[in-house]
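Tokens for Phosphatidylglycerol--prolipoprotein diacylglyceryl transferase. Go.
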Amino acid sequence: MRDIGLTWFGFDINIYAYALCILLGIVAAVMLTNHRLTRRGAEPWITLDIALFAVPLGIIGGRVYHVLTHPDDYFFPGADLLRTLYIWEGGMAIFGALIGGAIGVAIGCRVTGIRFWSFADALAPGLLLAQAFGRLGNWFNQELFGLPTDLPWGLEIDPGNSAIPVGLPEGTLFHPTFLYEIVWNLAGVALLLLLDARLKAQWGTLLGGYLIWYGVGRSVFESIRIDPSELFLGIRVNVWAAWAAVVVGIVLIIVQRRRHTGAEPGPYSDGRRWQEAAGVDSEDVYTETDDADNDAELVAASAAPSATTGAAPAPSDAATSGAAARP
């Protein structure tokens, strides 16, 4: 566990590097998603309204999934069950975060009127970007590394790390699987953005591309990791989850392309629209100040003597008619 020590007004503050990476990933994903969703016609920063639901539920889902797939780390005689809540110590499962986050997005879209699939397509590249930041946190924690290797980029782990298998000689290097995944995720961001620019992905098809891309990479990287994990039929649970993500992505693309042959009508659901306010000329705005100005002008006009103009007062109607009646 690595943290960053700061002193603020005499108080020592420890900022956990893993938590900081998660936070930076969330911020990056929100900013990229907001940019993409706004270009699709949504209200600027409505992404924040949806994130208020998606982020907390995503964190909860990611933590619950991790704890359930690593029960021996948290449930044993004398274990402190509160440690299941210590997310800053590491332990966030992306597949659980996707499930929890999807529930949060569905709620947020219901509240804001944004189409779920429109938001999902806008979010897809941001997900991979956030995951790249999250994997950087694994480096700070020196966790989730792979099998021993003699490759030049092999990772050196602190000898006291309990995750190192017993019996390995000192100085053994390991596959930096989190680094592989960072590179894979960033490449996926570029690929999804390129596909969206050329194909105008919609109706959730870009989300399907995300699931396929991430699932393929994760199944490979997960297979060479040596951290303890639950097995099903001799295969790590997360490998099964990665394969499931690929299948879901393929099915999603096929089904959505068959169901929706036309273009998306916009990012908002039927009956829910947003239109940017038109610019208003200040001359067209009537205020209380205008009332005061008008009153002052009327008073000044009535008080000004007509003699100032150098002309005689205009005769009354009665005088005019009387003059006309004289012989």
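DSSP finds nine helices and six strands in the chain.
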